[in-house]
Amino acid sequence: MTTLICTLQDHRDDVNWCAFSGNLFATCSGDKTLRVYKSRDFSELPFSPLYGHGYGVHCCCFSTCGQFLASCSTDATTVVWSTDTGEIEAVLEHPGRSPVRICALSPDSAHLVSGASDGSLALWDFPSKQLLRTGAVNDTTMVACSFSPCSQVFMTGSTYGDLRLWDLDMNQLHAEKNAHDLGVTCCTFAPSILSGGQVVQFCLASCGQDSQLKIWAINKFTPGGYKMQLLHTLTGQAAPVLSCSFSSDGQLLVSGSVDKTVAVYDAKNAVLLYTLKQHERYVTACCFSPTSPLIATGSMDKTVNIWRLDDGCSDRERSSASRFKLLVSDWSEGDVSAWLAEEGLGGLVDTFRANNIDGTELLSLTKETLASEMHIESVGQRSKLLRKVEQLKSDSVCSGIPDEFLCPITRELMREPVIAADGYSYEREAIDGWINTKNRSSPMTNLPLLTTLLTPNHTLKMAIGRWKTSH
What we know:
This protein has helices at 315-323, 333-342, 349-354, 359-363, 367-373, 379-394, 428-437, 458-470, and strands at residues 2-8, 15-20, 24-29, 33-38, 50-51, 57-62, 68-73, 77-82, 88-93, 100-105, 111-116, 120-125, 130-136, 142-147, 153-158, 163-167, 172-176, 184-189, 194-196, 199-208, 213-221, 226-234, 241-246, 252-257, 262-266, 271-276, 283-288, 294-299, 304-309, 417-419, 425-427, 455-456.
C-alpha cells in the first residue's frame, strides 16, 4: 500500500529531476532553479531556491556524504553547490559549450560525469573540480548516466537508443545498441554487487521511448571483459517511460511515464506492485529515499509528490521503529519505558520512571547503581537488564545514522574514514585488520585490492562531524 503524504508546488515550470541524500531532498526545474528541502518534514531550507543557471536545469544529484549538490543545465554548465550554505562551490563548463543534459556523481564522490546534447562526455575529478578527460558518441544526445556501485565504471544512454559502459579512462567496455527503440531516457545501477568465482555482477535498469522498463545483468569477468544480459522487460506503463530508480536495498524499482503514472515493481521478481495516479501530466522524475520508505515523483505539472510505502507493520512496531531512529542517548523516559516493556522487563517500568531514567542514564547504569540506588533486588533482573543495555551500546546501527557514515565492515559510525582501492570508505582500523587477515580482498566485491594504500576521506569525516554536532 502507498500513501500520498505531501505535494510540493514551489516550481514554476516542469520538474525535471529529484534526488535524496540522507537528510535532504532536492528538485530542479525548467524555471532555472533548484529547491532543497529537509527530508524529515519537507520544509524548504532558508537558502532555497538556488539561482545560478541561465537556463532550465535538467538533472541534480548529491554527493554520497550529502555535503554537495551538483546540477546541470542547457547553459552548458554543471554547478556544484554547498548544501550547508547554498553557495556555489564550482562552475564546470562543459567542453564545446553544448547544453548539458545529464550529470552523475560516483558513489565514492571521486568523479563526476556530465553528458551533453552533442553526444560528448566530460569526466571530472570531483574533489579538485578539474577536467580529467572527454569522450563522445557521434550524432546523438546524452540523456542518461549512472555509476556502478564500485565507482569504477559508468553507463550512459542516448537518444540513439544505445547503452554504453565506460571505464574511468573513457574506454568503451561494452555497447548495447538498440537497447530501447526510439531512444533511452534514463538508466540507473542497483546499489548492490554480486560476486562469485570469476564473475562480478551488477544490476542495471533502463527505460525509454519504447514504453519499456528493462532490467539488465552486467557481468564483469576477472580475466577481463564485460557481458550485458537482459533479464526482464517490464511493460506496466502504456507510454514512454521517462525515469527510473532503485530503492537503497535494490529490492524495489520505480518508474515514471508519459501516461502520467508511477509504477512500483518488485525488482527481483519483475512484478508490478503498485500503479500511482496522482500527477496531471508526464512523470519526468522519481527516486527513493535512502533512509525512509519514501518515494518522490516529479512531473511536468510542476509538482513533486512524496509517497510513503506502507510496510504493513503494526502501530507498536511503527512506534518502535520511530524510537530506534534516535540515538539511545536521545531517548526520553517514555522511550526507555517502552523499550523495557518490549524486552520483557515491564516490571521495572515504575522503578525507572520514579528515578527519571532517560536514554543517557540508561547507558550509564551499573550493577552497583541498580542494587544500591534503584533497589532492584533480583540478581537475574539486574543481569538481564545489563545484558540488554550492552546490546544497545554495541548496536550502533540505527536508521537515524545515514548509511554512508557506517563502516561496511563493522557497521559502526566511522571515526577515521579512509578510501580503499575498491573505491569504498571504511574505518581505518577495520580495513587495516581486514587486509591483514583476508588476503587483500575487497570486503565489498571479494576481488583482489590492487593496492593496500588507504586515502583519508576528509570530506566524509567532516560530514560525520557535522552530523554528530547536529544530533
